[in-house]
Amino acid sequence: xxxxxxxLYILLLMTFVVAACKKDxxxxxxxxxxxxxxxxxxxxxxxxxxxxxxxxxKPAVIDTTAQTITVEVQFGTxxxxxxxQFQLASDCKLDPKVTGKTDFSNLASPRVYTVVSxxxxxxxxxxxxxxxxxx
Length: 135
Fold this sequence. Notes:
By secondary structure, this protein is an alpha+beta fold.
């Protein structure tokens, strides 16, 4: 008599587990929620040195119309070991992902990062222009 009750509890528990695992919301290849948001821009930018302290000599200038970020770094900064940090509009993501230090030493060929909207339909490339503070 005890066995049917245990089986009933197990079946009930399995039903809840299956219902909880059902995906109601779409996610992208990174496991991020895809939303209806179309906004797509960089709202803030920071650049850190190997010690994770800012190397900016003044605030970065973000032009959302021209899709550029211009930042001046302190004289003597090691441009091969920088960590860019982006703050994006809600639900956006960055392509390529920033996974560690980045080499910005080729000033003639600025790096480009693409901001992808929450609905994953709009892509805006932002060019990072770095200059070095004069002595």
